[in-house]
Amino acid sequence: MPKIKLPSPPPGAVPKALRPAPQRPQEGNGKKSLKDKLIHDGTEAGTTVVDWVDERTSLSGATRWALFRKVPKGTNWFYTLGSATLFAFLNQAVTGVILAMYYDPSPTRAYESIRYVTNEAFLGEFVRGMHKWGSTVMVILIFLHMARTFFFGAYKYPRELNWVIGVVLLILTMAMSFTGYLLPFDQRSYWATIVGVNINGTGALIGPYLSDFLRAGPDFGATTLSRFYAIHMMVIPGAIAALIGAHLYLVAKLGTTAPPWLKAESEPELREQEV
Amino acid sequence: MPDKRENIKSRYTGDRAIPGAFEGETVTRRRFMVGTTHLAGAGAALAFTLPALAFALGPVFERQKATWEDVGPESAFNPNTYVPVNFTNTPGIGDVGKTTAYVRRFNPALDGSSQHKGEAIQPYVAISTRCAHLGCPVRYVPAAERFICPCHGGVYDNLGKVNGGPPVRPLDRFYTRVRAGRVQIGPRFSVNSQLNRFSPRDPAEPLDGIGQYAYPARFTTAKP
User: Which residues of chain A have a CB within 8 Å of the CB of B217?
Assistant: First the structure.
């Protein structure tokens, strides 16, 4: 316990109600002042709060299970690519929510609202830049993470399901890039979306209906932009967040793999038998 | 010798010594309760999922209205050269809803009998600038007498038929009509390589051979 010397008020200046209560007879050993008690409570406050929550939720066990895991020998910087992708997603989520405070998804107002964010709003250009460049960073990181998983053979049994979830996350990230590209509503994003929707339409039989669904009609219309906006900020982020939860659960449950260049060491007794 | 009948399970809960079962009961109250709960849950979930899904999918089935846009007097057009006109294709969204068509008067020497066999001849030929590859805007180059797409190099001849590049079918056209001496442009239609008329298709959807079946039209399309 830290020793803090507080200046004490002159005797009689403190009202009676605020003076420390006299020691109870049974607590008699050692005098405990109000000051000591406050310092004690203050230093223990964090523990008290955590204890209070933990007693009601039992979260400490889950936290320990998720965070204090054994990792194999040879774990290196390549293993951080998944976390890097996660933080890229969190960056997109936070900056996206703030951009949504300014953005107006109507065909006549969208470009103007983006122009306002970029040119006039305080730090708007910076936050929009974080979101715009962050999307590219997230796509790059997710591919590097996928490459790490592939080349380290981390997709093999029993982690196939996590690979499948990861592929779905990759597709959802691509869908985020596609729907987000339209939102600035300048010439580039408009024509890129026309071309992108038409590429969707090249799928036989269901392609034409998929295009109609994306555009909300046979042509780029009044609700196409707001449809893309809703998909971009509600539908896909929810799915991504849920799947990241499942992805991380499986990582914590199954553990990570050792890098492939690390030879598995056999037990000493077995080694003797091999000789 | 074991009695075979011992292995036959009774349908009746009472015979299977299930506690609390009535005489002659076949479904236990627990199973009934579980089933009811599942049904109630499924009903509650469908009550909001189905309307939401139908709402999102609605535009796919929505009937399109035919609109006619005035693009100028008859004297503004001639049978030999294309005149670009800018008109509103999708109302209510400002400049975004506008599109361009190249219009000239119907020319028997040029169009011959090729245009739309067995159907009423359009008084004017209005060729859409929407590229049949992926929807970029094409422009007409008079010196070359070709429609050329800037995005991926699609080239069309004077009638909008594919000359080269990736487009899968000729340029779309619009219905035209003349009202009180003024030319009006109506709904879009697509054509195959013989310039036969089809309901409007999106770009990149071929209409020759099996293409017309692989890429079905919308359920309802605007008819003039």
Answer: 208
